[in-house]
Specification:
With 88 residues, the chain is mainly α. It has a single domain, classed as Up-down Bundle (Methane Monooxygenase Hydroxylase, Chain G, domain 1), CATH 1.20.58.110. It is 88% helix and 0% strand. The chain has three helices and no strands. Helix 1 (5-41) packs antiparallel against helix 2 and helix 2 (44-64) packs antiparallel against helix 3 (69-87).
Length: 88
C-alpha cells in the first residue's frame, strides 16, 4: 500500500491509464490479426483494406502515447512488405 496521499492518487491514475492502454493494445492485436489472416489468404484487395485499418490503429496508438513512433513505423513497414508481396 502507498505511504502517502499523493502515492495513493498516483496508484489510482496508473490503474486508469493501464486500463486505457490495455484497450488500445488489444485493438492493435486484433487489427494485426485480421490483416495477417487476409494476407495469408492471399486476398490482395481485402489485405489492402486491412492494412489501412492496421496503420490507422497504429497511428492512433502513437498519438495517445501507447507505443513509440519508431515502433509503429517499423510495424507499418513490415506490414507493407507483406502487402507489396501480394501485389507483385
Amino acid at each position: 500500500m502507498p505511504n502517502s496521499k499523493s502515492a495513493l492518487k498516483q496508484m489510482k491514475t496508473s490503474e486508469i491509464k493501464r486500463d486505457a492502454n490495455r484497450t488500445v493494445k488489444s485493438g492493435l492485436v486484433t487489427s494485426r490479426r485480421r490483416f495477417l489472416e487476409t494476407a495469408a489468404a492471399g486476398d490482395a484487395p481485402a489485405s489492402e483494406t486491412a492494412f489501412r485499418q492496421y496503420c490507422s490503429e497504429l497511428d492512433k496508438a502513437v498519438k495517445k502515447g501507447v507505443i513509440k513512433a519508431n515502433n509503429a513505423d517499423r510495424r507499418k513497414s513490415r506490414a507493407h512488405s507483406r502487402v507489396a508481396a501480394l501485389s507483385a
